[in-house]
Amino acid sequence: MMKKMLSLLLCAALLLTCAAALADTASVDIRDRFQIKGTLPDGYKLSVLSQDDLVLEGEISSDDPAAPIMRLYVSFNETYAAKDTLKDMSDQELQVICQSFTEEYSVTFDRLDTASGVPLLSARETGDSADFLDFYTIFRGHEIELWLSKVDGADDPTLTEAQISRCIELIKTLEIIPLR
Question: Residue 71: which CATH number?
Answer without folding.
Answer: 2.60.120
